[in-house]
Write a structure and sequence with these properties.
This protein has 434 residues and is an alpha/beta fold. It has 3 domains: 9-93, Methionine synthase domain (Methyltransferase, Methionine Synthase (B12-binding Domains), Chain A, domain 1, Orthogonal Bundle); 105-270 and 277-290, Rossmann fold, CATH 3.40.50; 306-429, Beta-Lactamase. The chain is 43% helix and 18% strand. Strand 12 (398-411) and strand 13 (414-429) form a beta hairpin.
C-alpha cells in the first residue's frame, strides 16, 4: 500500500481483528515474550501511541474482561493478562517522544506510576502539556499553578480500591476551580469505587479519556456526532444509520436540533464497535449484545433435560446438618435469584447469620460490577455451570473471590438452583466512601 494512504473502515477493522487475535492468543497460551512484539509491530505500523492503546490494548483489555464475565477464564488469569498489557504499554510509553504542544495544560496525579506514565504520554501525543504531581500534593500544586494549568486535573487510578481521602481531595480541587477527571482502566472504575468519589467525569479507556479531557477543559461534557465518529473511526452518517436501523437509545439534542452525546452514549457505541471488530458479529447482533439484549444460550427456558435436574428433597434438619459440616459455601436459590437457604459457611463470609440471608438476592451478595454475572446463573433459567467466579463482599467490605458450581435441583415440586462455592482468593478490604 502506498505511503500515506489510509485503510478503509473494513480493512482497518480486519487489521485490528488480526492484531487483537494474535495478542490474545499469545497471552492465553502464556507466551509472555511474544506480547511485546505484537504491540511493537502495531506501533510501527500505525506510528501512533494513541492508536495502539485505543485500538489494540484497550480492545484486548475489554475482551479479557468479557472472557472473565463469560466464565472463560478465572480471576488469576484475568489479573495476569491485564498486568502484561499494562507492563508492555508502560515500557513503550517511556521510550517514545511526546507530541507538539497545542496550548492545553493539565495536572496529572496517579496512584500507580505505570498507568500515570501511559496516560501522560497519551495526553502529550494529543498536544497537552502535562505537569505530574503526587496525589498527596496535588491540591498544593493546583493552588499555586496558573489558572489555565489547574483548569483540568486528571486522577489516574489502578486496580486498588479508591482511598476515601481522595473524595475530600477532589472536593477541594473543585472548590478552587479545577475540573477533575478520574481515569481508571476497565471495570475497576466500579469494582474499586472510583465512580463514587464525586469527580466531574470518569473514563475507562483512552478514547473516552481524551474526549473528556478536551470537553472538561472547555467546560462542556457533551460530544458532537463528528467527535464521536472520529473516535470510532466511522462517519457521522454511519452512527445515524446505527441509531435508525437498530433502534439504539436516541441521544439528546441541543436547541439547534443537533445530537449531543454523553459518556454513556459513547460507551454504548464503543461496545457495538468492539463486538463488530473483535467478535465479527453483524451490526444487528452487535447492537443487541451491547445493550444486554442477547442471551448467551439459546433454548426453551421451561424445558431442561431431565438428567440435568437432580432430585433433592431432604428435610430442613437433614439439609442443615450436612451443609453446616462442610467448609464450602452452599446456597439454594430460586429462579428469581432469591436465597431459599444456605449453610453457615455462607453466612460467615458475609459476617452475618444464616437467617439474615434467607430472602436476600444473590446479586446483592457480590460487588456491583459482578451483579450481572451473578444473574446469569439463573437467567433466563437456572443452569449448570462449573467454576463460575464471583467476587463476594462482607458487610465490613472484605472482598472474596468464590468459584461456584451450580446444579438445577427439584425440591417439593419447585425448581431450584444449588450452588457449591470454594474460596479462590481474598483480595482486599474496601474502605467505605461516605
Amino acid at each position: 500500500m502506498p505511503s500515506g494512504v489510509k485503510l478503509n473502515v473494513v480493512s482497518a477493522r480486519a487489521q485490528q481483528r488480526r492484531e487483537t487475535s494474535e495478542l490474545m492468543n499469545a497471552m492465553l497460551a502464556g507466551l509472555s515474550d511474544r506480547v511485546p512484539g505484537v504491540v511493537r509491530t502495531a506501533l510501527q505500523r500505525s506510528g501512533s501511541f494513541i492508536d495502539v492503546i485505543s485500538q489494540l490494548i484497550d480492545t484486548a483489555r475489554m475482551e479479557i474482561e468479557d472472557m472473565w464475565y463469560r466464565g472463560d477464564i478465572g480471576v488469576a488469569d484475568e489479573h495476569r493478562m491485564l498486568r502484561e498489557l499494562d507492563e508492555v504499554a508502560g515500557d513503550i510509553a517511556t521510550e517514545i517522544p511526546g507530541g507538539s504542544p497545542s496550548g492545553r495544560r493539565c495536572i496529572l496525579a496517579a496512584t500507580d506510576g505505570r498507568n500515570g506514565v501511559i496516560n501522560k504520554r497519551l495526553l502529550e501525543e494529543d498536544g497537552w502539556t502535562v505537569r505530574v504531581s503526587d496525589p498527596d500534593n496535588v491540591v498544593a500544586q493546583a493552588k499555586v499553578a496558573p489558572r489555565p494549568e489547574r483548569r483540568l486535573v486528571l486522577l489516574v487510578g489502578d486496580a486498588a480500591v479508591a482511598s476515601p481521602e481522595l473524595k475530600s481531595t477532589i472536593a477541594v480541587l473543585q472548590a478552587i476551580g479545577s475540573r477533575v477527571l478520574i481515569v481508571v482502566p476497565g471495570h475497576w472504575a466500579q469494582a474499586g469505587q472510583w465512580q463514587q468519589l464525586g469527580a466531574d467525569a470518569c473514563a475507562e479507556d483512552a478514547r473516552t479519556m481524551l474526549l473528556l479531557a478536551r470537553k472538561l477543559y472547555s467546560a462542556d461534557t457533551s460530544f458532537s456526532i463528528s467527535e464521536v465518529a472520529a473516535s470510532l473511526r466511522v462517519t457521522p452518517h454511519t452512527i445515524r444509520a446505527w441509531e435508525r436501523r437498530y433502534k439504539l437509545p436516541p441521544p439528546e439534542r441541543d436547541r439547534g436540533g443537533q445530537r449531543t452525546y454523553t459518556t454513556d452514549d459513547v460507551q454504548l457505541l464503543l461496545r457495538i464497535s468492539h463486538a463488530v471488530t473483535v467478535h465479527g458479529h453483524s451490526l444487528k447482533l452487535a447492537a443487541l449484545e451491547a445493550q444486554g439484549l442477547l442471551s448467551d444460550e439459546v433454548g426453551d427456558a421451561g424445558a431442561l433435560p431431565g438428567a440435568a435436574v437432580e432430585s433433592a428433597a431432604p428435610t430442613d434438619h437433614q439439609w442443615r446438618r450436612v451443609a453446616d459440616a462442610i467448609p464450602e459455601l452452599l446456597i439454594l436459590i430460586d429462579n428469581e435469584g432469591t436465597i431459599v437457604d444456605c449453610n453457615i459457611a455462607t453466612a460467615r463470609i458475609r459476617d452475618t447469620i444464616r437467617e439474615n440471608l434467607r430472602g436476600a438476592r444473590l446479586p446483592d451478595l457480590v460487588i456491583d460490577y459482578d451483579r450481572a454475572k451473578a444473574a446469569r446463573l439463573y437467567r433466563p433459567w437456572p443452569r449448570r455451570r462449573d467454576g463460575w467466579e464471583l467476587r463476594m463482599r462482607s458487610r465490613r467490605g472484605k472482598q472474596t473471590v468464590v468459584a461456584f458450581d451450580s446444579r438445577p435441583v427439584a425440591a417439593d415440586g419447585a425448581r431450584l438452583l444449588g450452588l457449591i462455592g470454594r474460596t479462590v482468593a481474598e483480595e482486599r478490604v474496601e474502605p467505605q466512601i461516605a
